[in-house]
Amino acid sequence: MASITFDRITKRYPDGTQAVSELDLAIRDGEFLVLVGPSGCGKTTALRMAAGLEEISEGRLLIGDRVVNEVHPSQRDIAMVFQSYALYPHMSVRENIAFPLQCAGLAKAEVRERVDRAADALGLTELLERRPKALSGGQRQRVAMGRAIVRQPQAFLMDEPLSNLDAKLRGQMRAEIRNLQREYRTTTLYVTHDQVEAMTMGDRIAVLRKGVLQQLGTPEELYESPANLFVAEFIGSPPMNVLSATVTRAGSGSELLLGSQRLVLPAGALDAYPELAGADATPVALGLRPEALRDAAGADPSWPRLLADVELVENLPPEKLVHLRLDAEPVVTEATLELAADVDQAAAEDLRALGRGSVLHARLPGTTPVREGTRAQFAVPPSALHFFDLSTGQAIA
Ligand code: ATP
User: Fold this and answer.
1) pLDDT of residue 255
2) Residue ranges of the chain with pLDDT lower than 50?
3) What positions does the domain ABC transporter occupy (predicted)?
């Protein structure tokens, strides 16, 4: 096993496209690191450079402490798993899994033992004599995994290996890949555009945007302390609500102006933000996760209250997903539009057609008595407020 280090790596394609810019990223020995970001952000390019399939324009790539920029892919001792399984159709499952070992010239008994062990770990024992065409998509993906595992490489590189599977199977395979990685403790770099996959699988996650690393951290760190609006809106479903607001000083405490409303913050609420606590009126992008909006009834009386029109209540037992409207302006950044466009062009158009206030998403327990067409009061724990610089999108610390 070994670490994989990107040391200020840049990739420029011959046509001038800069796909990866000065990437500094170290995947620790035995770690499962997920590289995530929207389509075209440079994930595959980064992975292919690690594999040796793409030339590196600038910087150094290390596996362990060996610089491998000029080392041929076959000499890097890594195994790749792709979205397309690339199985040999004329070979049985056993032959497919054994193939790389036979190429490496391993003794027959050793090959058999390794294949049996991998098949057992992947639940393929009963299927070893079948041909790929007689397998389901999930089973084929397992064979592809098996072929990577038997080599006992120093690292796995995986590029969207689950994207051809249906949602249920994807969930199942996510867990299987994670369990296998824990068992074998093989350093893994896993590429996906799916933030749920990233959050559920990664020991740490690296978020990439337009070839530039935005943040590297554990799933909890990214969720709780996003470094900027891009990460804040990319991680989490439904995404963080982001609104234009002004923070002002009021006596010994502070207030938040949000559209026509004035939210009184309890004393000390901004202690962690000296930049805000000291200023008179600071315009900010205010971030609120959907679960930060709580039913006001029974909530801590010191928490600020927010009034909003309940437009839609979606029952999603054991929760309710509630769409609220507020007269505060949404913050529409280039990143917001990029993310919306990545999912759905119509959503991006909706964001452009502003002037109707903001729609907020709230995730409430299913028992919350909230009704469509009413105006309701919500309480917000001060610790759940996120503040970002309006012009740069960087988190205010
Ligand atoms: P996706 O999730 O859609 O696969 P990605 O994040 O993996 O995207 P890359 O495939 O690494 O992104 O592409 C990064 C950028 O480099 C994109 O702008 C892409 O168009 C560009 N690109 C990729 N391959 C080439 C190439 N051979 N020549 C020129 N530009 C390229």
Assistant:
1) 92
2) 355
3) 4-235
CATH (one of 3.40.50.300, 3.40.50.720, 3.10.310.10, 3.90.1170.40) for 4-225: 3.40.50.300
Domains in the chain: boundaries: 4-225, 234-389
Q: Which residues have CB under 8 Å from 282's CB, separation 6+?
A: 246, 247, 248, 275, 276
Quote the DSSP letter at residue 134: G
Check residue 341 and give its pLDDT: 63
pLDDT score at 327: 85
Query: Rounded distance, CA 90 to CA 98, Å?
Result: 14
- Kindly report the protein residue whose alpha carbon is nearest to atom 20 of ligand 1: 40
Is 68 close to ligand 1, i.e. is its CB under 6 Å away? no
Atom of ligand 1 nearest to the CA of 191: 7
User: Residue 17: CB within 6 Å of ligand 1?
Assistant: yes
pLDDT in tens, 204-226: 999 999 999 999 999 999 999 99
State the pTM of this model: 0.90
Complex ipTM? 0.98
d(CA 299, CA 362): 15
d(CA 93, CA 128): 5
Topology given in CATH for the domain delimited by 234-389: OB fold (Dihydrolipoamide Acetyltransferase, E2P) (2.40.50)
